[in-house]
Design goal:
The protein has 402 residues and is an alpha/beta fold. It has two domains: 38-222, Alpha-Beta Barrel (TIM Barrel); 229-341, Lyase, Ornithine Decarboxylase, Chain A, domain 1. It has twelve helices and eleven strands. Helix 5 runs parallel beside helix 6 and helix 6 packs parallel to helix 7 (191-205). Keywords: Cell projection, Cytoplasm, Cytoplasmic vesicle, Golgi apparatus, Lyase, Membrane, Nucleus, Pyridoxal phosphate, Transport, Ubl conjugation.
């Protein structure tokens, strides 16, 4: 076996050492090495007092990490989660996550997260008996919620929970509105519509001066349209839509063209899987109006029947090596690709207008570095144009995302 295996490929154990013993050793090491988003946030200088660990389902190792690094605000939505925090982070201050009416949303998060209104008093009482202070309420309406009034109802429910908490002696002063806000043009419900409903509800239930801090998770709003994705066609084939021998009115058998891309739903197109989106591509060069359109579908590289990016498209005849462009590829694309694959497989080019760069440079670069500013990074782009060069050498290899 020389050249194939070495002793370093294995964890060596002594006779009598069981699989259970090995698992206990490995899981202990894994929990001690856990890194979280909290670490990333603190690394860029955000103080622990400004961090809320909003996920209502946490690993014990992550709770201990929060305790060790001074993160005090944690969310919960059930007795077991509260007990975990009481044991591993007894000085924590809790935010109660309540369920929402997301029956019209694309994803029904309330099946997974959030306490029902009828169980909140019991949870608040449980926290009081455990000497844990509940300081606020949170909720999260999933992206794609078509009814802005769902936010108003959730805010009204939060007011009820605040009153429950006050009756039990909790000093509550935080309301977290969650996220999922639309960040692209043409959304079914515009951000301005949602904001108007939220502001009206806040004026009614949490008016200015009531001493409640209002938080929101605006990740999707900021990044939904952050990227334009370019992927190449790596293979194609024609597939019969009907059984052989059956012809359409023109006398030919109906066909569709299947295009295989170098990215799929387990990577940069995870939004298809997660949010049931149907990405529509554009071509780098506008096709001639004389070119016929063909029934087409786009598939990712995975060897399974689920990796379908889009079906029912009508595209001109394309070829292996051609590129397709997808706009508004921010949320649940690049970040999810790195989670599933372990490392990003795309090449990223960032672009910023020179006007924006000049406006930000004094804040981004310390005054003493102004003399060397041009050598640090010199953006070459204008507006939304794509640059051909980077101020930092490329780290990632193609798909590519721009």
């Amino acid at each position: 076996m020389a050249g194939y295996l070495s002793e370093t490929d294995f964890v060596m154990v002594e006779e009598g050492f069981s699989t259970r013993d090995l698992l206990e050793e490995l899981t202990l090491g894994a929990s001690q090495a856990t890194t979280t988003e909290m670490e990333l946030v603190q690394r860029i200088g955000v103080p622990a007092s400004k961090i809320i660990y909003a996920h209502p389902c946490k690993q014990i190792a992550q709770i201990k990490y929060a305790a060790k690094h001074g993160v005090q605000l944690l969310s919960f939505d059930n007795e077991m989660e509260l007990a975990k925090v009481v044991k591993s982070h007894p000085s924590a201050k809790m935010v109660l996550c309540i369920a929402t009416d997301d029956s019209h949303s694309l994803s029904h998060l309330s099946l997974k997260f959030g306490a029902l209104l009828k169980s909140c008093r019991h949870l608040l009482q449980n926290a009081k008996e455990s000497h844990v202070e509940v300081v606020g309420v949170s909720f999260h309406l999933c992206s794609g919620c078509p009814d802005p009034q769902a936010y108003a109802q959730s805010i009204a429910d939060a007011r009820v929970v605040f009153e429950m908490g006050a009756q039990l002696g909790h000093r509550m002063h935080i309301l977290d509105l969650g996220g999922g806000f639309p960040g692209v043009e043409g959304a079914k419900v515009r951000f301005e519509e949602i904001a108007s409903v939220i502001n009206s509800a806040l004026d009614l239930y949490f008016p200015e001066g009531c001493g409640v801090d209002i938080l929101a998770q605006l990740g999707r709003y900021y990044v939904s349209s952050a990227f334009t994705l370019a992927v190449s066609i790596i293979a194609k084939k024609e597939v019969l839509l009907e059984q052989p021998g059956r012809e359409d009115e023109t006398g030919s058998v109906p066909k569709t063209i299947v295009y295989h891309l170098d990215e799929g739903i387990y990577g940069l197109f995870n939004s298809v899987l997660f949010e049931n989106t149907c990405p529509t591509p554009t071509l780098p060069k506008k096709p001639s109006t004389e070119q016929p359109l063909h029934s087409s579908s786009l598939w990712g590289p995975a060897l399974d029947g689920c990796d379908c990016v889009a079906e029912g498209l009508w595209l001109p005849q394309l070829h292996v090596g051609d590129w397709l462009v997808f706009e508004n590829m921010g949320a649940y694309t690049v970040g999810m690709s790195s989670l599933f694959g372990g490392a990003r497989t795309c090449h990223i080019t960032y672009a910023m207008s020179r006007v924006a760069w000049e406006a930000l440079r004094e804040q981004l670069l310390p005054a003493e570095q102004d003399g060397d500013a041009e050598g640090v990074c010199k953006p070459l782009s204008c507006g939304w144009e794509i640059t051909d060069t980077l101020c930092v050498a490329p780290v990632f290899t193609p798909a590519s995302i721009m």
